[in-house]
Amino acid sequence: MDTRRPMRADARRNYDHLLVQAGEAFQAHGVDASLEDIARAAGVGIGTLYRHFPNRDALLLALTEERFDRSRASAEALLDAADPVAALTSWLRRFIANSATYRGLPESVTSVLTNPDSSLYATCHAMQDAGGRLLARAQQAGAVRPDVSARDVFLMAAAIGWANSQVPDDPERIERLLSLLIDGLSRPYAGPGLPERAHIVS
Amino acid sequence: MDTRRPMRADARRNYDHLLVQAGEAFQAHGVDASLEDIARAAGVGIGTLYRHFPNRDALLLALTEERFDRSRASAEALLDAADPVAALTSWLRRFIANSATYRGLPESVTSVLTNPDSSLYATCHAMQDAGGRLLARAQQAGAVRPDVSARDVFLMAAAIGWANSQVPDDPERIERLLSLLIDGLSRPYAGPGLPERAHIVS
DNA sequence: TGGCCAATCGGAGGTAGCCTCCGTATATTA
DNA sequence: TAATATACGGAGGCTACCTCCGATTGGCCA
């Protein structure tokens, strides 16, 4: 299948070092970390970094693609779960954790999803589609309001990841915000009063 | 009260031009717009920009302070409104619109709120405190779940502003996402089943 | 083993944006 | 009109991005 030669030993070594150092730099400084620092930390010239990874996104791709693909697989597995809302919740929790891996990653994820030229586009869309099926299932079961789109749900999930990275660490915060989102998604009590409240105009 | 002399006429003129051009640049390119471009557009040297506004935040402050202060006043006025949830909703809508004025502004707002040295700190905190009283009132009325903090609510509101700026314009989106948030905040129907759903672990 | 060359390396250098500093220009006041 | 406080402007030092190409080297073959 793969007709390309294997990498030369030095190239392979540098590639691996770069990935390790990029991971640490993104962890420490967010996805805007200096690429020259990464090259220096990996003990290679800046030209070598750019040859292996022609832009910042390529580096991000190499570091995150597998994670996003596992998230897609996880969504597909959860389609068989007993409780559709629990399945959706559990998958969203994972999606949020993924997109909060590095500071600035939620921005990249949402921008990738609207940019077909991005190398992560296919992976992210497959993940989103799989999540969309989880949402549709919960809606068909009547447990989630039917008027909400997958796009809006993912946006909100990414937004929770963003929010969490904006303020000092609080290990419980993601769970609290996710719970707010899930309650908002859940089909509200259809009695008098409540469901209309959100639509009152000022 | 103000013991300072009035600005020299040329200084005043330049100051005004800079503000106008900065507003347009932030509108067009987000809060990371090039300051050198702004100076050029205003017909002044970069040194003049920095004398009037020692850093980017000072420019942002001058452009947004009044808006945030009006938001505080609006929160205080809404304390007398008949329906506490409608009042909170209406104020959050305004808060979101304010923090979505420029791309990147939600980041600045959340960062200002955790940085007492920022010149916008006092204004933003006053606004947040006023909003917090609106939330407390809705909670005391039993219409909003009591276990949610003002901090989390503002974070989510800022996150909605962020989300909206990440993807192509959709005039209805803010309203849909806000409605999700409000439904999540609203005290859920206390019958069997629903309220627990959000807390199921994977 | 030795030599060749394609693959790989490295960093100089051009671009852009940030911000400071200080010699020059000018609005204001007397 | 002259003196002076005030304000101007942009050169220049810094950091980061990214490209290009001469120097280097790993791997293969005789």
Automatic annotation (TrEMBL), chains A, B:
<keyword id="KW-0804">Transcription</keyword>
<keyword id="KW-0238">DNA-binding</keyword>
<protein>
    <submittedName>
        <fullName>TetR/AcrR family transcriptional regulator</fullName>
    </submittedName>
</protein>
<dbReference type="InterPro" id="IPR036271">
    <property type="entry name" value="Tet_transcr_reg_TetR-rel_C_sf"/>
</dbReference>
<dbReference type="InterPro" id="IPR049445">
    <property type="entry name" value="TetR_SbtR-like_C"/>
</dbReference>
<dbReference type="Pfam" id="PF00440">
    <property type="entry name" value="TetR_N"/>
</dbReference>
<feature type="DNA-binding region" description="H-T-H motif">
    <location>
        <begin position="34"/>
        <end position="53"/>
    </location>
</feature>
<feature type="domain" description="HTH tetR-type">
    <location>
        <begin position="12"/>
        <end position="71"/>
    </location>
</feature>
<dbReference type="Pfam" id="PF21597">
    <property type="entry name" value="TetR_C_43"/>
</dbReference>
<dbReference type="InterPro" id="IPR050109">
    <property type="entry name" value="HTH-type_TetR-like_transc_reg"/>
</dbReference>
<dbReference type="InterPro" id="IPR001647">
    <property type="entry name" value="HTH_TetR"/>
</dbReference>
<dbReference type="InterPro" id="IPR009057">
    <property type="entry name" value="Homeodomain-like_sf"/>
</dbReference>
<keyword id="KW-0805">Transcription regulation</keyword>
